[in-house]
């Protein structure tokens, strides 16, 4: 009798932990992705896949933005020693000067974040648009853009573990945490490197729309989701 009630309590506890209820109030509908020359492909296309899945269940709009409002290229601004050409260009349609109405902005990382002149326009855009957003999400070294826009000051955040020293220099007043796959602090979500963007976005979907919707998206894309605190790369790169 006693054992079964312990088991029941334990299982109820487990179920509660994976049954996040939707946030009350109006849901975000308009999601922008801010591109700049030299963004990382999976930082953009991974979350775009999760947004696509969300769009089969909820009414949302996804917009790609770039400085010129026409296109954006993933080509690194400095080629690596191999001299490979692994570039691709996507059409955007919205510029930072004339953005669509946005409730959410996703900021990817990539080698282009190291090109100060190249990311200056997106840093300005983030600084200007953040006060009117419901949520902002960075992937990978995109956290350096949020830090340079000043919006991580006083907040907990994470970023790509291999690029940790480079990114964290931009946020002296940020409470950087290298033991995280992704972190939410108030309305700011930051994720670890590259593939972590998908886990962060699925975590964000769960936070906003609840577990059933997030699980539906996750299963639809056959993604093995990793939780917010489940990260092995900080250790791999000697950060803890
Ligand atoms: C959205 O997903 C939830 C959870 O799986 C489901 O109950 C609901 O019917 C779905 N709504 C639509 C419009 O597909
Ligand atoms: C790299 O590939 C892109 C697209 O395939 C092409 O437009 C560009 O000219 C190529 N660059 C070089 C240096 O070959």
Explain what the structure shows.
- The structure is a single chain.
- With 240 residues, the protein is an alpha/beta fold.
- It has a single domain (27-236), classed as Class I glutamine amidotransferase (GATase) domain (Rossmann fold).
- Helices cover 35% and strands 17% of the residues.
- The chain has eight helices and eleven strands.
- Helix 2 packs parallel to helix 6 and helix 6 (196-209) runs antiparallel to helix 7 (211-220).
- The longest helix has 16 residues, at 2-17.
- The protein is globular, with a radius of gyration of 18 Å.
- Bound molecules: 2-acetamido-2-deoxy-beta-D-glucopyranose (2 copies).
Keywords:
240 residues; alpha/beta; Rossmann fold; seven-stranded mixed β-sheet; two-stranded antiparallel sheet; 8 helices; 11 strands; binds 2-acetamido-2-deoxy-beta-D-glucopyranose; DJ-1/PfpI domain-containing protein; Class_I_gatase-like; INH-QAR
CATH topology name:
Rossmann fold
Fraction of residues in helices?
25-40%
Q: Write down the oligomeric state.
A: single chain
Number of domains: 1
Which regions contain 5 or more consecutive residues with pLDDT less than 50?
1-17
**What integer value in Å does the Rg equal?**
18 Å
Number of strands: 11
Overall mean pLDDT stands at: 92
SS content category: alpha/beta
**In percent terms, what proportion of residues is strand?**
15-25%
CATH architecture: 3-Layer(aba) Sandwich
What summary fits the major beta sheet? Answer: 7 strands, mixed
How would you concisely characterize the structure shown here?
With 240 residues, the protein is α/β, with parallel strands linked by helices. Helices cover 35% and strands 17% of the residues.
């Amino acid at each position: 009798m006693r054992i079964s009630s312990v088991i029941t309590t334990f299982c109820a506890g487990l179920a509660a932990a994976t049954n996040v209820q939707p946030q009350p109030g109006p849901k975000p509908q308009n999601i922008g992705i801010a591109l700049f020359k030299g963004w990382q492909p999976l930082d953009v296309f991974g979350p775009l896949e999760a947004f696509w899945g969300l769009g089969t269940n909820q009414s949302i709009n996804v917009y790609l933005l770039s400085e010129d409002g026409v296109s954006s290229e993933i080509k690194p601004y400095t080629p690596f020693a191999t001299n490979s050409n692994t570039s691709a260009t996507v059409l955007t349609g919205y510029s930072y000067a004339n953005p669509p109405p946005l409730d959410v902005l996703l900021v990817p990382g990539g080698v282009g974040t190291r090109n100060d002149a190249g990311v200056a326009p997106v840093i300005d855009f983030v600084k200007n648009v953040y006060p009117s957003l419901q949520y902002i999400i960075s992937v990978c070294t995109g956290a350096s853009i949020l830090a340079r826009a000043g919006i991580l000051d006083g907040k907990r955040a994470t970023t790509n573990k291999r690029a940790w020293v480079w990114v964290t220099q931009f946020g002296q007043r940020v409470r950087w945490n290298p033991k995280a796959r992704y972190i939410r602090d108030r309305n700011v979500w930051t994720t670890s490197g590259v593939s972590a963007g998908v886990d962060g976005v699925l975590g964000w979907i769960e936070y906003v729309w609840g577990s059933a919707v997030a699980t539906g998206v996750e299963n639809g894309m056959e993604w093995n989701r990793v939780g917010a605190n489940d990260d092995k790369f900080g250790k791999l790169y000697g950060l803890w």
